[in-house]
Amino acid sequence: xxxxGYAPEWxxxxxxxxxxxxxxxxxxxxxxxxPVVVRDLGxxxxxxxxxxxxxxxxxxxWILHDQDPGLVRLAVAAVENATGEVRDVTRLTxxxxxxxxxxxxxxLLDLFTAxxxxxxxxxxxxARVPALLTLSVVGRVALTPADPRDEAVAAAFNAHQRREGRxxxxxVAFAAAEFAERGFTVHRVPTPWxxxxxxxxxxxxxxxxxxxxxxxxxxxxDLSGYRRTLESVVVEHEDLLALPxxx
Length: 247
Fold this sequence. Notes:
By secondary structure, this protein is an alpha/beta fold. The chain contains 8 helices and 8 strands, in the order ααβαβαββαβααββαβ. Strands 1, 2, 3, 4, 5, 6, 7 and 8 form an 8-stranded mixed β-sheet that branches. Helix 5 (about 115-125) runs parallel beside helix 7 and helix 6 (about 150-160) crosses helix 8 (about 200-215). About 40% of the residues are buried.
């Protein structure tokens, strides 16, 4: 899970880095019908919708899904021509997606179990809807200055992400295979955060959460003196676009 949870403050803090990292080139591969109807799964405060709105044809209609009613209200207020639905997005069906031009999500796929990903893929396949799933973590980070314990902390954090059957760093590869098995054309693009001098608040918040999750997963880690001021951070992600038509 995101190391700092789903507080609106965390989602707002990361929005700029997310916007820079996402693969805008994948949007060019879309051929949505007009008017465009987009379902944003796990919408948070609406950052994915704000990023994508100017990259899709108009008119647009947005349906914003999240399990947190407060986040849905924030997102609907910030996204033009949007309605909200408080629901479990892992239970969407092909019938729910009828009339949808695009399913999208950001920083969500790695929170799903294998069965939840299969259900989402089945829903998209049944409705013949493309899916743009961005910023899924893949389990690799690079910190400057480095510490010999970085690899062990990363391994513990990745194990934390796999709790309760979630796929965590393996989610993108698993989803890509599931979409391909159902005849989708699948594109994957690396989309790392590259954080530096202008991202001090985000680096500190991310690093604190990352270390805390690792320590929770593996209390035997020796973290004395490990927390430090970082000059730069690279957090690897991938974007996935699945198209229900040939290239």
